Amino acid sequence: MPKKKILQEDREYTFCSYFELAEDPDEILAELGYTLVIAELLLPKTTKELVKISELKQKIKRILPFIRLNNETARREMLVSPLLLEIVDYCNCQLRIEYPLKVNNWLKGNLDYLLYSTNGVLIVEAKNDDLTRGFTQLAAELIALSYIEENTIF
């Protein structure tokens, strides 16, 4: 029996649309021409002393009992943004917030955060609770970025 298509040719999809899809990430990514591989990711490590990160961690621990993190905006402003600002300071990279990106009608929308330098890029997507669906949205954003990365100056 042929499988029903998830993505409809005549419909537009923003990155947020991928979060709303109920299908499994591997099925959605397959329709975009990608394969989901689950494996350990080994990222480069720094030799710099990360003193400010430890201070930020302690500050967050102190204030966390006084903050309600019951929505995406609260998490973005109270947890994600301060950490990304430290990363910008350590790495001397550029930070774009709510960065618009459009490849086609299936891959468009705003990235919560885009960090980039001459050595690479990083997309950060702040989500509520559902990490699987949040991952699907992030994967669509990474696919879109891969289409234009070589042709665009951020």
Description of the molecule:
With 154 residues, this protein is α+β, with helices and mostly antiparallel strands. Helices cover 42% and strands 16% of the residues. It has five helices and three strands; from the N terminus they run H-H-H-H-E-E-E-H. The protein has helices at residues 15-20, 25-31, 51-63, 72-91, 131-148, and strands at 94-102, 108-117, 120-124. Strands 1-2-3 form a three-stranded antiparallel beta sheet. A hairpin with a 2-residue loop joins strand 2 (108-117) and strand 3. It starts with 14 loop residues before the first helix and ends in a 6-residue tail after the last helix.
Write the layout of secondary structure elements.
Layout: H1 15-20, H2 25-31, H3 51-63, H4 72-91, E1 94-102, E2 108-117, E3 120-124, H5 131-148
Antiparallel strand pairs: 1-2, 2-3
Helix pairs in contact: 3-4
Largest sheet: 3 strands, antiparallel
**Low-confidence runs (pLDDT<50, min 5 residues)?**
none
How would you spell out the order of helices and strands? HHHHEEEH
Q: What is the average of the pLDDT values?
A: 87
Broad shape: globular
The number of strands is: 3
Structural class: alpha+beta
Number of self-contained structural domains: 1
Report the radius of gyration as a whole number of Å: 17 Å
Terminal Cα span: 45 Å
Please bin the fraction of helical residues.
40-55%
Q: Provide the spatial order of strands within the biggest beta sheet.
A: 1-2-3
